[in-house]
Amino acid sequence: MAGRALPFLKLAPHVDRQVVFRLRPVRNALVEWDVNADGEALLRIPLRENRVSRVLRIIAPVPSSRSIQLDEVGTFVWGLCDGSNTVEGIVQKTCLQYKMNRREVELSVTAYLQMLAERNLIGFYEKARASK
Amino acid sequence: MPTTAPNITSAKNKTLIGWQGIRFVLPADWNLTGFSMEPNGGYLKVDSPGTMFAQVRWTERSAPKPRTLFDYTLQALRRLRIIKPKVMDEPELRSVLEAFLVDTRKQARKSKSAFEYRIKPRVEEAGGMRQAHHFSWTGGDQGQGKIWRCSACGRTVIAQIVGRARDEVAQTAAGFFSSMTDHPEDGWVTWALYDFVGAAPADFRLVRHKLMSGYLLLELERRSERLRLERWGLASVALKRFTLADWFRKVCDPPVAALEEGVERHGHPCVQARGKPANLVRTAVLWFRSGATLRPALWYSGCAWACQESNRIYAVQLWRSRRSPDLLDEVADRCECHGSQS
Question: Which of A38, A72, A98 sits opposite B311 (nearest CB)?
């Protein structure tokens, strides 16, 4: 209640680590992607159509989508975000694939997934019920 | 003559932690999460993937800092051996331990649990070299630990394993304490963390470190000499577009132009470079970097090798003065690559 009235009092929700590791990341269906010969994915994210973009398009050529190039490890993790793998599963598969220490992978994979989620490229759901 | 160190982490289900002479073994999935770099002591925290963790805190035997002119005069006379060196007061282990347990009690009070502890009588261990008290406590969590003073190195060490009531604290603590050493036996300090195992002579001090995901750096110094131990992950990705020699030139930037190839380390092809920089600017930079001393560390020895089994690249670089021995081979041979995989 206090958080609603005074936003600076709003506490960050405490999320249990075990719960996060049970979540299943799934790619945004609007994002198109293909993998080049080097095994690196190129994501094409369609830009939102609104009045401003329509006006801008009359004045200057505005692309209809923007692209993001992922590196090899990023592509590997992106490929696993198909809704069938949990975060825990992705961490384990990345550990095996690149022979890295589990803690190193945990830190980098969770930060990467968080970044993808902030850009709305992926969402998370729990198998029992959709959470996001 | 370089010697090959025995593979100290040959047990696959164990992980070795080594820091400033403290060395111990814990289950494979435990990782270092906290440490300090104090001059007269240190602290280590190693977390399990669950709720257990290990803590080690140690203090070196050191004289109090001089405060008055009289103290400084005494210190100078002792250094000149005109008067006898001061005999250090030995810390009273039981009182140090009780102070530690009072702190633990304060933390347990937050969980509103009854705190109880038990201190066993003092025992002598390691052939009379250590005087130790074993202790255990319960209060919300539970802990099993030991405090001891080593007469060989003068360190006072307090170490414990902490876990929840359901955790196998006693079993983990038994393995932890049986493997614990508080000083190097052969004059080489083991530096081991995140599956990296390396070693450096005991008089090299850690001055810089970087512990990042996929990259680890430990930089040590002894007077003007500098030793860099580095490890990169994802070797298959890094070496996709470069040869190892190109990669070494680009990333490590050795001050010597000629690289020696066709050498093997730990069964892997290795590139190395030795010598003094021919470039005057680089020589001047190295001279200033080593404190503009009369014995500047201008002589460079460095090597790098890629381990396919562990998918990692290792690099050892040493800057030394002309008269200092070249430790490159011995340091590189003491680094473990695929043998340390857990």
Answer: A98
Task: Kindly report the pTM of this predicted structure.
Answer: 0.81
A104 touches chain B (CB under 8 A): yes
Question: What is the DSSP code (8-state) at residue A64?
Answer: S
Contact B312 A73 (CB under 8 A): no
A17 neighbors A23 (Cβ within 8 angstroms): no
pLDDT digits (tens, 9 = 90+) for B282-314: 788 877 777 767 778 888 999 999 999 999 999
A71 interface with B at CB cutoff 8 Å = yes
Of the candidates A38, A99, A102, which has its C-beta nearest B310's C-beta?
A: A99
C-alpha–C-alpha distance, residues B68 and B24, integer Å: 41
Interface probe for B, chosen from A16, A92, A104 (most Cβ of B below 10 Å), is A104
Q: What is the 3-state secondary structure (H, E, C) of chain B?
A: CCCCCCCCCCCCCEEEEEECCEEEEEECCCEEEEECCCCCEEEEEEECCCCCEEEEEEECCCCCCCCCHHHHHHHHHHHCCCCCCCCCCCCCHHHHHHHHHHHHHHHHHHCCCCCEEEECCCEEECCCCEEEEEEEEEECEEEEEEEEEECCCCCEEEEEEEECCCCCHHHHHHHHHHHCECCCCCCEEEEEECCEEEEEECCCEEEEEEEECCEEEEEEEECCEEEEEEEECCHHHHCCCCCHHHHHHHHCCCCCCCCEEEEEECCEEEEEEEECCCCHHHHHHHHHHCCCCCCCCCEEEEEEEEECCCCEEEEEEEEECCCCCCCHHHHHHHCECHHHCC
The tens digit of pLDDT for each residue in B207-233 reads: 999 998 889 999 999 888 899 999 998
